[in-house]
Amino acid sequence: MVVALRAFAQRPLLGYGPGAFPKIYAQTEYAERFQIGDHPKERYAHNTYLEVLIGSGGVGLALFLAVLVVAFRNFSEAKRRALPQGDPNLAILIDTYRLSFAILLIYLLIFSDPYHKYLLVSLGISQVALRVAASAERAQRQGLETTDLHSFPRGSRLCR
């Protein structure tokens, strides 16, 4: 963390570029002091947020955090929209995804990979959850039961 804070102080705005921290760390006295055997001196930052901060600076970290906040809001808005629909299973599913996303955000404090597959999938799922809840909300406003396919006119694409 000391190396990361020093590196950030040198280039606070735009950083060094993605994946630069291991190379920066390898050039420090800490890399020499903590090297074990013949292993490479390079190592990742202690968490994803530091990795993003060093790689893309304060601007990149702000954008990264904004994306995470939008995803969390998507889950919250989807749950809010699903509750009045009378579909508790959808609300519970969305809430479960929101909880797992929150746990993933905490996990990123001890894991250093901004391209982690669970993070990327969770970002997509947050948008899908919002669209599904909005679709159910629209269907209810139009007086359609989302599980009743007989309410759609014959020949419509949903009946096929």
Supply database-style keywords.
160 residues; disordered C terminus; elongated; 6 helices; 62% helix; mainly alpha
Enumerate the spans where pLDDT stays under 50 for 5 or more consecutive residues.
Answer: 156-160
Helix content: 55-70%
SSE order in H/E notation?
HHHHHH
Secondary structural class: mainly alpha
Measured between the Cα atoms of the first and last residue, the distance is 58 Å
Q: Estimate what percentage of residues fall within beta strands.
A: under 5%
Number of domains: 1
The helix tally amounts to 6
Report mean pLDDT, rounded to a whole number: 84
What's the number of extended β-strand segments? 0
Main beta-sheet annotation: none
Rg measurement, Å: 22 Å
- Outline type: elongated
Provide a compact summary of the structure:
By secondary structure, the chain is mainly alpha-helical.
